[in-house]
Amino acid sequence: MLNVWRSVRFTIVFAILLGLVYPLIVTGFGNVLFPFQAKGSIVKFQGAPVGSMLIAQNITDPGLFHPRPSAVKYAANGSGGSNFGPTNPALVKEVRKNLQTVLQQNPGTPVSKIPPSMVESSASGLDPDITIKDAMIQVPRIAKATGLSEAYLKSLIQKDRQGLDFGIWGQPMVNVMQLNLAILQQEGK
């Protein structure tokens, strides 16, 4: 019977330590050391929250950069990919639909120049970044819609460019939210 009470006490003590004390300490340190990130990396424009730097949004405005397609329709409460295999007819249908959308939004772009990342959803369905190539393909459309020069838009892409992970993995990316905020600020909206 003594061992049972010892086990119960052990469980209660560690439930309090690891279930309450530790999370409160980690949350406190996070809020003190990284307040922006701990509060969801929420971005404000003209004093109002417009989104997060970490979660893509469904953007259809021709004057703004568009994120990758999303298998979860950009719903942050249910991230995930489609999990369709490469031979699944549903994946082929989805990619064709996304390709048609990209071609309509960016007329004059040859199909052979459209990278897979523009027509395939990311693993999370919420990827806030696009490749430099994805961004460059969108420049003519945005320049036409906003009146901003292509040179200015390309300079924004290069300015906000993020390098490889640890200098070796992935490919250079750019955050869609950062680009779109810069465009909105330039337009004075």
Structural write-up:
With 189 residues, the protein is mostly helical. The chain folds into two domains: 39 residues, no CATH class; 147 residues, no CATH class. The protein has six helices and four strands, in the order H-H-E-E-H-E-H-H-E-H. The strands form two sheets. A two-stranded antiparallel sheet has the order 1-2. Strand 1 and strand 2 form a beta hairpin. Helix 4 runs antiparallel to helix 5. It is extended, with a radius of gyration of 22 Å. It starts with a helix and ends with a helix. The mean pLDDT is 89.
Give the key terms:
mainly alpha, 2 domains
Which stretches are poorly predicted, pLDDT < 50 over at least 5 residues? Answer: none
Strand order of the largest sheet: 1-2
| SS field, number of helical segments | 6
Q: Strand-and-helix sequence, N→C?
A: HHEEHEHHEH
Q: How would you summarize what this structure contains?
A:
This protein has six helices and four strands, in the order H-H-E-E-H-E-H-H-E-H. It has 189 residues and is mainly alpha-helical.
List the helices and strands and how they pair.
Layout: H1 2-33, H2 35-38, E1 42-45, E2 48-52, H3 89-105, E3 129-131, H4 132-146, H5 150-159, E4 173-175, H6 176-187
Antiparallel strand pairs: 1-2, 3-4
